[in-house]
Amino acid sequence: MAQFHAPAVTALHADGTLDREGNLAVWEHILDGGVDGIVLLGSTGEFFSLLPEQKRELIDLAVEHVLPRGDLVVGTGCLRVDETVELSRYALAAGAPAVMVVSPYYFALEDAAVEAYFSAVAGQVPGDLYLYNFPARTGYDLGPDVTRRLLRRHPNIVGYKDTVLEVGHTRRLLTELLPEFPDFRVFAGFDENLHHVVTSGGAGAIGGLANLYPEHCAAYARAVDSGDAAAIAVAQHRIDVLMGLYALGAPFFPLLKAGMVARGVGLEPHSTAPHLPPTPEQADALAALMAAVEDLP
Description:
Layout: E1 3-7, H1 20-32, E2 37-40, H2 52-65, E3 71-75, H3 81-94, E4 98-102, H4 111-122, E5 128-133, H5 135-138, H6 144-153, E6 157-162, H7 167-177, E7 185-188, H8 194-199, E8 204-206, H9 209-212, H10 214-226, H11 229-242, H12 253-262, H13 280-294
Parallel strand pairs: 1-2, 1-8, 2-3, 3-4, 4-5, 5-6, 6-7, 7-8
């Protein structure tokens, strides 16, 4: 069954403190839209700019409010192994079913160093762990050879998010790893790649657009499940149009928040410093994009 998960934005007040009610509104909007679950503290959730106590508060809140309605995976990646292990253990002890760990970032690393990092983490995390590959932010790729060696040593590594626009990269992971590890769950990191990834043996997508239009992302996954070529084409076209959001500004999560506010979701449009709100030109482009999507059949 194709799954679509939302890497949820983090609702904040203007002073940078967590907006508890805003986060509840975000999660309700996402889950009401029909997607399968939420990835907390991902890149879209600004994990890199949040304080440790904010992360723990969000984890506790999400375990209480998300789990009764959908899947929950918590991003726990830090540059230090001990900090990653500590946050992972906290999330699992709080009741999160799984954690997701991004590759160490800032300096590009050799395969041996990447393998050593993930092996050290996986060996100390008492629960399910997803690998998170995002070469545009880490400067290097977590390839199938390193992943295979990790899977052979650590059965608690159960999945992989591949945030690479080139779908051939994800297809290579699937064709090289699934014969030996048929239950390994590979997710596309870009919304538009869901169909190809699922039909190649993957689990689905973890895509930021599910924050803004969860109903369209859920419809995309259901269309893929149905095998109805016409329904898939309609859903794919809608997602393809929405993918234009990623090109409107860098980073894109302030645009997601602005669009969610425009749709009536009860969060404030603030992001962590130094990220700025959309410019008037970006806001106009976002409004035009949303209007175009809502005019589609």
